[in-house]
Amino acid sequence: MMTLRQLAAEPPTLPTRAAWYLTDLAEARGKQELFTRQSPQKLKALREHALIESAISSNRIEGVEVDKSRIGTLIFGKPALRDRDEEEVRGYRDALKLIHESGANLPISEATIKRLHKLCRGEIWDAGKYKEKDVDIIQTYDDGRSRVRFKTVPAKKTPKAIAEMVRLWQDGVRDKWVPPVILAAALNLDFLCIHPFRDGNGRVSRLLFLLAAYHCGIEAGRYISLERIIEENKERYYEVLEQSSQGWHEGKHDPWPTTGFLLFILTQACKEFEQRVGKLKAPHGEKTALIEAAIARQPGDFSFSDLQNECLGVGVDLIRQVLKRQKKAARLTCLGRGPAAKWRKASK
Counting Cβ atoms within 10 Å, is residue 117 exposed (0-12), middle (13-18) or buried (19+)? Predict the structure, then answer.
């Protein structure tokens, strides 16, 4: 909660790089609805792929791996589970499904945090329960040496710390201290520094970040695995967490290394979503249906450019053909000449 306390006390001056990421994310969010109107079949394929990647990558970051030949069955089937690793991958899948199905309607609360932990930890005695003993983050070297990388919040103070973290998140969203995605990154950092559970904190932190992204109106994580992008940048992930956690207990830490990293993850996911949707081919007739649906949504007179803006990835020739057919069928009337001409739907 120390990062959120910082934001509550004094609105920060955003680093230039963070401001750039915010601009990119605002643009991506503006395109999001247009892309999600694409083919249900295409989007279903992306959703299923992201579900697999997320469940596998987030657990693999924590050293949990399963037989590759079992992955599809674990994610989409109902097989008897062979071991603890398979249980945890299946549980993470269930937590992902909860977030994707509920989106921003699932509150960021203590109950939700415990529920996510209980799901992704499976049938283990302390699933969904805060740690009972102090747990520090230990780094072990190849030669057997180890060191305390970070002393987390003591077990006795954990419930109070989580309660304050949730309250500050809610206050920040309501009072708009900073852009919501900055708050989402702060929430993630504070959660990891509190380290409320005996085990599974990393996985819950990534689930919480996905959920916070939904609350910020960013849904790329439904189609592109945030966890997979984090895994691809795992060394940097650990590096920024260590940088930002130094001085956290005293409120003298620098949250921007972690904040910038998490903004980068969201930006990459949005860019990849746009690229993948653009590359997938639509079934025959689907683009025509997309144009016709866009016409039906127009509240009044509209222009050719209005349809272009709503039908990303659709060629101008096809839009002209659909307009011509609807004009011939007396469903549309053209009110002028040239590209700027307005079109009007026929009265019913």
Answer: buried
Phi and psi at residue 193, to the nearest 5°: -75, -35
Contact 139, 124 (CB under 8 A): no
CB 60 within 8 A of CB 231: yes
Structural contact between residues 66 and 74, judged by C-beta atoms closer than 8 angstroms = yes
CATH 1.10.579.10 for domain 286-345: no
Domain range annotation of the chain: 2-279, 286-345
Q: Rounded to an integer, what distance in angstroms lies between the CA atom of residue 123 and that of residue 114?
A: 14
How does pLDDT run across 84-123, given as a tens digit for each residue?
Answer: 888 888 888 999 999 999 988 999 999 999 999 999 988 8
The model's pTM: 0.78
- Asked if 60 and 206 count as a contact pair (C-beta separation under 8 A), the reply is no
**Quick one: residue 285, left, alpha or beta (phi over 0 = left, psi -120 to 50 = alpha)?**
left
Provide CATH code, domain 2-279: 1.10.3290.10
